[in-house]
UniProtKB/TrEMBL annotation:
It comes from Actinomadura darangshiensis. GO terms for molecular function: enoyl-CoA hydratase activity. This is Enoyl-CoA hydratase. Keywords: Lyase. InterPro entries: ClpP/crotonase-like_dom_sf, Enoyl-CoA_hyd/isom_CS, Enoyl-CoA_hydra/iso. Belongs to the enoyl-CoA hydratase/isomerase family. Its EC number is 4.2.1.17.
Length: 249
């Protein structure tokens, strides 16, 4: 079943939900209504039965960032310390994996949106970059936090201070891209990856994911204790006829 709002389309393929930014005339740049619709789609995924989401863009482009025309017209709410960021979802954490399927432009807030995802599958012709700095616009959707954690301090500064376009192969060398595909194959490859993830037993998988996502501020002993607590919680959800030892090597 496909659900369409004005700028975001959602559809299901078995246990996978596909969320598509659908503003091809604006290179899928996000304005305030699109940001709200994207947040609603992600909330629907979180509350629904799908096990994995794939986030992509229509018309051969992932997302060119925030819609500069809409920003110039004052259509975005004024940024605030505790308010929603421009992309609306980038300060949230889903309990289930999200994979970005990237073709074409992945710039500014669109790049930050991709960094928010768990995994990134990208075409060889995709381009990445914080081009918002060319326009004097700061990052408000997590680039200065997630990019150094994923690619390292020096590479994050390279991307930020130069505001240059980063080719897909270079981004892959930075570890930002999970899988590099031929042009036009990003969505198909991401769906195959999502289907694989969705086929695995979920409690232990989600506990391990949560451990990875929450360990950064913890000391090693506290992170190990957190891992154990999450694993034991997941083990408690295993049916009695499938005890924990049956899942171990």
């Amino acid at each position: 079943m496909t659900t369409r709002t004005e700028t975001v389309r959602t559809e299901h393929e078995g246990p996978v939900e596909i969320i598509t930014l659908d503003r091809p005339s604006r290179r899928n740049a996000v304005d305030a209504p699109a940001a709200r619709e994207l947040a609603a789609a992600v909330h629907g995924f979180e509350a629904g039965d799908a096990r994995v989401a794939v986030l992509t863009g229509a018309g051969g482009t992932f997302c060119a960032g925030s819609d500069l025309k809409a920003m110039a017209a004052g259509e975005f709410p004024a940024p605030a310390l505790d308010g929603p960021p421009p992309m609306a979802v980038t300060r949230t954490r889903t309990s289930k994996p999200v994979i970005a399927a990237i073709e074409g432009y992945c710039f500014g807030g669109g790049f930050e949106l991709a960094l928010w995802c768990d995994l990134r599958v990208a075409s060889e012709t995709a381009e990445f970059g914080l081009l918002n700095f060319e326009h004097g616009l700061p990052s408000l959707d997590g680039a200065t936090v997630r990019l150094p954690r994923l690619a390292g301090h020096s590479r994050a500064l390279d991307a930020l201070l130069t505001a240059r376009r980063i080719p897909a192969r270079e981004a892959a060398g930075w570890g930002l891209i999970t899988t590099l595909t031929a042009p036009g194959e990003a969505l198909k490859t991401a769906l195959a990856l999502a289907t694989r993830i969705a086929s695995l037993p979920q409690p232990a998988l989600r506990a391990a994911r949560t451990s990875i996502l929450t360990q950064a501020p913890l000391s090693e002993p506290d992170a190990l204790r957190n891992e154990t607590a999450l694993a034991l919680t997941a083990a408690g959800s295993i049916p009695p006829d499938r005890p924990l030892r049956s899942r171990l090597p």
